[in-house]
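idk why but the lab printer keeps eating my pages so im just putting this in chat instead. protein + nicotinamide-adenine-dinucleotide:
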Amino acid sequence: MEKLQVNIPHKAAYSYDILIGTDLLAEADEFVRQYSKANKFLIVTNETVAKLYRDLLNIDNAFWLVLKDGEEYKNFDNLKLILDAAVEHRLERKDCIIAFGGGVIGDMAGFAASSYMRGCDFIQISTTLLAQVDSSVGGKVAINHEHGKNLIGAFYQPKLVLADISTLKTLDLRQLKTGLAEVLKYAFIEKSCAAPLYYRLFDFLQQNKKDIFDMKPDTMAKLVEICCTLKACVVNQDETEKGLRAILNLGHTYAHAIENLTNYTVYTHGEAVAMGMKMAFNLSMTRGLIDKNYYNQAMELIESYDIAPKGAVFDKEKFYDEMFLDKKAQNGKVRFVLPDSPYNVLVTSDVEKQQVLESIKL
Ligand SMILES: NC(=O)c1ccc[n+]([C@@H]2O[C@H](COP(=O)([O-])OP(=O)(O)OC[C@H]3O[C@@H](n4cnc5c(N)ncnc54)[C@H](O)[C@@H]3O)[C@@H](O)[C@H]2O)c1
Ligand SMILES: [Zn+2]
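predcted complex ->
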């Protein structure tokens, strides 16, 4: 088992550990008690995860709340169900809400924990690759509003994140790939994260594709460890996205437009991110920020993981409006994260419309 530490500067109370390993569910009771003084636990999960793993997760003094599965349930109604359960079971402030599932459950249960009694203990037991490499680290918690994704939320750090690699084996290929899109993202931003160690994630992804798709436990554990370390490193430097944290949005300016244009029903988040990263590389290339060699290598790596669907065609003007109109109306700026040398990115709002339009191609 690997143990990583997330240290939010000036907030010693908000530092926490990430435990990564296989068959951790069986030992979860021991871990959660080590990290929380709670007497009672409310385990929030969904029907899919409960069916697969409820029997493996034995935590004493725990109440279970099993919600419906799907992004469309990350809403006020289900937030209320969590808070109702906390009230019904008379959880106190030192008690603990455990999110057991992917990013949807993690975001929603975390937001419930941030507001229940102005903040009770919170633990993430993440079961998707996306949650293990991305959403469970960094403290962003939220629900969706009918007018926007993750519109209502908070920054709220867990007491512990448990990433049991063994749970990944039941993910379907599409869910695995959606997590892998975020993993690729870390490869392209690795240098900008300024982590103490240089992992060469890009090379690792080039060399270990077969083991990754076979979900070899050691390989997956290493991937999760590298990505969590990089994300933790960025979050430690900029918890609330005042600067550096924006680099985690490589490909996401485009991806959000794709998701909005297709009402979140056509592509998974990772598929949209993979397409978005290609577009970001196109823009970098047009602007002369990177050379053809790195551009080709990066595009080949994205292609080789076969995440971005082939043949997607977008109305470029609509796409552009989707990216810019909302933000302009709010006097906001659209930030682009652009590769500017191997494994390094810059963040800029200074882009030309024509170049952005040209970059919208796959
Ligand atoms: N907080 C953050 O920083 C952050 C970052 C990225 C994404 N997110 C959020 O995360 C969410 C997406 O997360 P996700 O991709 O994990 O989606 P998800 O939670 O919907 O999980 C994907 C699917 O996999 C199923 N599942 C979960 N674990 C499984 C397992 N071990 N085996 C088989 N199936 C399993 C789920 O039931 C679901 O059907 C979005 O709501 C997004 O906004 C948050
Ligand atoms: Zn993402």
